[in-house]
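Problem 12. The chain below contains 75 residues. Write out its predicted structure in token notation.
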Amino acid sequence: MLAKVMSGRTRGFALVTYVALLDVPRPVVECLARLLDANRMRLRTSKGSRALGPFRQAVLVLRWFRERGRALPDP
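Solution.
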């Protein structure tokens, strides 16, 4: 994975922009994003009430699972 971190200041808040390459096929991310979107529709979550859209949430979830899997010790 390749990552680049940039920082800046806006309205007194420190902002961090994180750019990374995730070694997961795009169709997997898109499929998960569709599932997340369908679940939001089922729950009747209003648009704009979530911090991330379905695609970015899918990337975040897959990234979390990738890191969690690497952190586990070998049996």
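Discussion. The chain has a mean pLDDT of 80. Students who got a different answer should revisit the alignment rule from Section 12.3.
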